[in-house]
Design brief:
18% strand, seven-stranded mixed β-sheet, alpha+beta, Alpha-Beta Plaits
Length: 728
Amino acid sequence: MKSGCAASSCCSNNRTPSDTYKTGKQGRLDPGGIQLSWVITGMDCPSCAAKIENAVKGLKGVTQARVTFATERLLVVAEDNASISDDILNTIRRLGFAVKEDGTSASTSDGFLKKYWRIISLAIVMLVAALIQGVFPMAGEVLFYLATLWGLYPVAAKASQLAKNGTPFSIETLMSIAAIGALFLGETVEAAMVLLLFMVGEHMEAFAAGRARQGVQKLMELTPETAYQIDTEGNKTEVSAHSLIPGDIIEILPGSRLPVDGELLTPNVSFDESALTGESVPVEHDAGDSVMAGSLSVDRVARLKVISKPGESAVDRIIRLIEEAEERKAPVERFIDAFSRWYTPLMMLMAVLVAFIPPLAFGEPWVEWIYKALTLLLIACPCALVISTPAAVTSALARASRNGALIKGGAALELLGSVKTVAFDKTGTLTEGKPVVTHIESFDHLDQDVLRLAAAVESGSTHPLAKAIVAKAQEIDILLPTASDVEAKAGLGVQGVVERKTIVVGSPRHLKDSVDLIAGAEQKLEQLEAQGNTIAVITVDGALAGFIALRDNPRADAQRAVASLKAMGINSVMLTGDNPRAAAAIAGQLGMEYRAGLLPGDKSTEVEALREAGRVAMIGDGINDAPALKAADIGIAMGSGADVALETADCALTHNRIEELAELIGLSRSTMAIIRQNIVLAVGSKAVFLVTTLLGMTGLWVAVLADTGATALVTANALRLLRNKKKN
């Protein structure tokens, strides 16, 4: 966090037009003004992000400001005036952070010199002072004094700037007071050592922060800056990926990544999607399939039609979710934030009391107790405590996203680990979502006639069962008549007029009167349902014409997913609108409970009932699942599901493998365990050194070393979550 720290190479510029890094004028209009965006470098921990945020919020003309530590971005909504960008940039630089401008990186060589020259020179002066002090004590003392002033200048300047911008109790303030106090007490060696250890500790934090952000940065590097666009005459031109709009045709070479979401025009192309979904095996796509940005063409040249707007590709959406996730803090994280706000001022008050009460009340030596008070100021540094939770949460979110799961913030991450029941939608979640016709049973009609009439009224529907019926008719080359006055009723069925007859395709429950009029129909219905079929009942002018039996087979990993959750002590329940007998067949095959015959609204009611036994996670993929996802403590959407389900949910499985739901819950539990360990380590070390300081056993430099060590330990502990590899 040193003043003058130069920008490092950063890949976020492929998220925002490069002009916005300098002026922000290309940012979209916002109800509160224009939106500006910059990449900030030099942030070592979340408290750095908070310092920048507070300072920018205090500027005249700024209505909103948010710094996302994970992606190093500052997002500002401000009044549109000529000086606002310069005011923001100047404020950031005065705080000692660097801004990446015009989409180019700052000189890395200058950055290295600026970051390390002061530390190196301080260490050299201290070494020389230590060597000559035995021979020339006064000269050594002067050198230590000068070394302290040399190290103190940028720290005190930054402390002053932070205080002016609303952060008076910063670590820089504590270090400055401690170093100045030590100089007045004549403890020049310890004053210089405190500053040297502080500088080294900051760079250790910067390294650890870079490691924690590594997973997010790899996502941000997935999409290339340029693309090959194909014009109407077939000519190929290299263009900026930001200039592509829906409808453009692009071409990617083998070994290249897709810069935007696209609809494949070239048949049979294999794509490596592991960076986005965690799926290690390349996926073969046919013409017409949608392919996500960041996917790598494995075997051939491919042409695609752009389907995502600028800034709205799959990678952009993932990064936006990660940025928004920082606002959805876990309860424990919010508590730590609130605690740290009053902890430092309280410790400063305690230091004042330690400095004055013993000498005034008991006649103790002033120098001894002022020294102890200065040591307490350094112990008051909350760095280890502040970083203990966000370091773990950031690591967990990065790992989850790398493995194809998006978690919208620390709050959702924390809740996942305490789930007692997982409620599953059936179609498309537990099953493949591709039902097929298995049997046609007709009454006073030909089988093909029943199928022809049903397919005619279902031909315009997007429901999986409707598609299966139409596909079966097309498979056996049935010519479909035109249906008129088609009306779909959610949860009930569809009706229309075909050849002047009213045709209804619905569920047995809602057409029970028609079924009961035909002898033996009920028994046949029960027999088909017991085999795990879903039954579509077809009536012609109110009379039963026949049944179409359909079956949607369970996903290959569904049984393993349920078994893994059971091993973790988590109950699994299937919620479906299907009939009880078909639901029982699927649930029995998977080894789980079920609730059948549910209308879309009924799922929410069932979720509320399940919550009485503990926290509930709901996983689904359809529009009709959105209310239940919202009603659950944690909503989990399948990545291939409807947009409304993805927006409503707290988590999303982009790879569509429910088997890894248990691993996601395990990751949550591991994260919370590491957070608890980090809090104990951070608070415990403070308590120990508080006692040893008051007993006169530890001094200034030991307090700084202990705090730096605790910060490094809690960060390293959190980084273990990044190394927690996926199980094959």
